[in-house]
Design goal:
Layout (H helix, E strand, L loop, with lengths): L1 H41 L6 H21 L6 H15 L5 H4 L6 H15 L3 H6 L1 H26 L1 H11 L3 H11 L3 H13 L1 H24 L37 H21 L6 H14 L7 H4 L3 H14 L6 H32 L4 H8 L9 H13 L3 H38 L2
Helix pairs in contact: 2-3, 5-12, 5-13, 5-15, 7-8, 7-16, 7-17, 7-19, 8-9, 8-10, 8-19, 9-10, 9-19, 10-16, 11-17, 11-18, 11-19, 12-13, 16-17, 17-19, 18-19
């Protein structure tokens, strides 16, 4: 009896402590809202570095919470993008990223680090095996070009269609190139970037839906014994040696006692620097991001760099957060007035682009042995904007449809390499070549 009373007393005490905790959290939240949002909105206070970073982080967290609650029916990137747009329309300063302590040139460097990291996750044979992904991605981009430059030209005019087509294939650089072609035409100048920024509002949910359908199909096959989880690479436990071995090791591993976050970052940054040199040597025809991916793949295969290097250097969370903040900070140029002005054109263009992807990418994907959902998802890689959306949406879908760690790995290993390659083919490099071709054909 005494034990029961004691237990009851402990439970009551814990419940009381939780209420105190919730009360404190509520008071802190109200204070933050008053000083960091309301006061800033009134113009009575300016954002500090830590406050700006906190507000951007809150937008990312709310996106994740809503995505989790809706089981990724509403993708986190979509929610966060909406919150950033609302923020810029109300009290977010246009340069909130810089106020938050992020230098203008830092995100590009971090993206290159992330690309190297992603490259280390792909082995050579796996990259070769992604030839189907390359074909389906190119098919989707071809579908966008054909439909936009034909039907789009008839509906909206040749110049509008030509300006919008390259950004719709997913590239920020392509959008910048087409802004240059727009000249003094302010509508076309804004349209070039608006199309690139807004296409994710259609690409994110459609891609997420397709990936979840594919994930459920993969889990059904796994539970039926039709799919098996691949084993990790062989492990060595020799003293002072790295734990991973690879088929084509050429480099001596850094002894374990000397391995640290610093050495892991060192090997990664070397490849980032080399990718910049290679872009210069290739006269810019091959993007430094593509070179970073290639160096990551071969660096891991040859034993120069550890796989999943950002995780091993304990930098993944911070690097990923900064990249996401950078992506959404690009929405600062969208105003209510420009959005209303461009809404009609954008609606027509995005519908035509989606139809173009579907009528070309899905039949080819089905012919190559893929499901309709996977074929459409890869074709949509352009509208989803490539990395980091390809990474986020794939991992998010895998989490939602999986009940165990093994199921998560099955889904992730089957869809993530495809979506990553699709994003790199379209947004990272293919869109730049397309923009160059459109400039040469329509604006010379």
């Amino acid at each position: 009896m005494e034990n029961v009373k004691e237990t009851s007393s402990i439970l009551n005490e814990n419940s009381s402590n939780k209420w105190i905790g919730w009360l404190v959290a509520f008071m802190v939240g109200v204070s933050l809202f008053y000083f960091e949002i309301y006061k800033v909105w009134l113009g009575e206070r300016t954002l500090t570095t830590q406050s700006a970073f906190l507000l951007m982080l809150i937008c990312l967290i709310i996106g994740e919470v809503i995505s989790t609650k809706t089981k990724a029916f509403v993708p986190s990137m979509f929610v966060s993008a909406v919150l950033f747009v609302i923020g810029f329309w109300t009290f977010f300063p246009q340069n909130i990223l810089q106020i938050g302590g992020v230098a203008p040139n830092l995100p590009t460097f971090l993206v290159m680090m992330m690309v190297v990291h992603l490259g280390t996750m792909l082995n050579i044979q796996e990259l070769i095996n992604q030839w189907k992904t390359v074909l389906v991605t190119l098919a989707g981009m071809l579908g966008i070009l054909v439909v936009i430059l034909t039907l789009g030209s008839l509906i909206l005019g040749k110049e509008t269609a030509a300006i919008a087509a390259p950004p719709l294939t997913g590239g920020f650089v392509a959008a910048l190139m087409m802004q240059g072609a727009a000249g003094q035409n302010q509508h076309l100048f804004i349209l070039a970037m608006a199309v690139y920024v807004l296409q994710g509002f259609v690409g994110y949910p459609l891609t997420s839906l397709c990936l979840k359908i594919e994930g459920k199909n993969l889990i059904k096959k796994y539970r039926a014994g039709e799919l098996k989880l691949e084993q990790e690479p062989n492990v060595k436990t020799e003293k002072n040696k790295s734990t991973k071995t690879y088929k084509w090791d050429l480099f001596e591993k850094i002894p374990l006692k000397y391995q640290s976050d610093f050495t892991n970052l060192f090997t990664m940054v070397i490849l980032v620097v080399l990718s910049g040199y290679l872009e210069t040597l290739s006269l810019g025809y091959i993007s430094k991001f593509v070179w970073a991916l290639i160096l990551g793949v071969f660096g891991a295969a040859l034993g120069f760099i550890e796989p999943q290097i950002l995780i091993k250097s304990r930098s993944m969370g911070f690097v990923y957060t900064i990249i996401m903040m950078f992506v959404f900070s690009q929405l600062s140029s969208i105003t209510p007035e420009t959005l209303i002005l461009l809404l009609k054109d954008f609606a027509i263009l995005i519908i035509l682009a989606t139809v173009g992807i579907a009528i070309v990418a899905i039949p080819l994907g089905r012919y190559l042995g893929w499901s309709t959902a996977m074929s459409f998802a890869i074709g949509l890689g352009s509208l989803a904007g490539g990395f980091p959306a390809s990474y986020v949406l794939s991992v998010e879908a895998a989490k939602v449809v999986s009940e165990t760690e093994e199921e998560f790995k099955i889904v992730e290993t089957n869809i993530l390499p495809k979506t990553l390659v699709s994003g790199f083919v379209s947004a990272t490099s293919g869109s730049v070549f397309i923009a160059g071709a459109v400039l040469a054909f329509f604006f010379k």
